[in-house]
User: Fold this.
Amino acid sequence: DSFSDQDDERSLSQAIRLYRDITDSDCDGFIKSEAYYKMGCAYNDLDQWEKALTSLKRAAKLNCHEAFARIGDAYRYGKGVEPDDATARRWYKKGADLGEITATLKLAECYRDGIGGKQDYEKAILEYQHIAERVNGRGFKRQATGIGTALYELGNMYLNGFGVQPDFKKAIRYFTLAVKKCNNPQAENKL
Assistant:
């Protein structure tokens, strides 16, 4: 037997019921926030955008850091709401202020590309640097992909002179770190 889309939908619907049982229970806020977050992700996978956004906002209200980037994405790409880059940028900023790596990367992208507000290369560099500083920190392995992306983007900023004077040595250093520490294939292609 092969696994079908219908089986996948049934599994996701069953997971949503289990997450709802948790959110309706008397368990602590952390467990509820994770259940709301996972419920939002499941609704997202089922293309039920409004329900996904509602669940993710409840998770964020309970301080689930990962929810902020997903809410920002909903506004950025119009999933359950009208697309609104400025609102997306605000949600990314909230997540970045909590240190959430995906939200920080997306906020840096907003600054770099002028999404949802003024383009600001210097702020983009600062956000990428906040992430890159984690290269030798606790939880590095869990965050390696995001750190590698930040190192790669810093390399690009120095290579192209975005917000800084072009500096090929610094660009190469960032690309090399992204490859050696994080196995980033984009950085490897730049070298």
Summary: The two ends are 46 Å apart (CA to CA). The chain has ten helices and no strands. The mean pLDDT is 93.
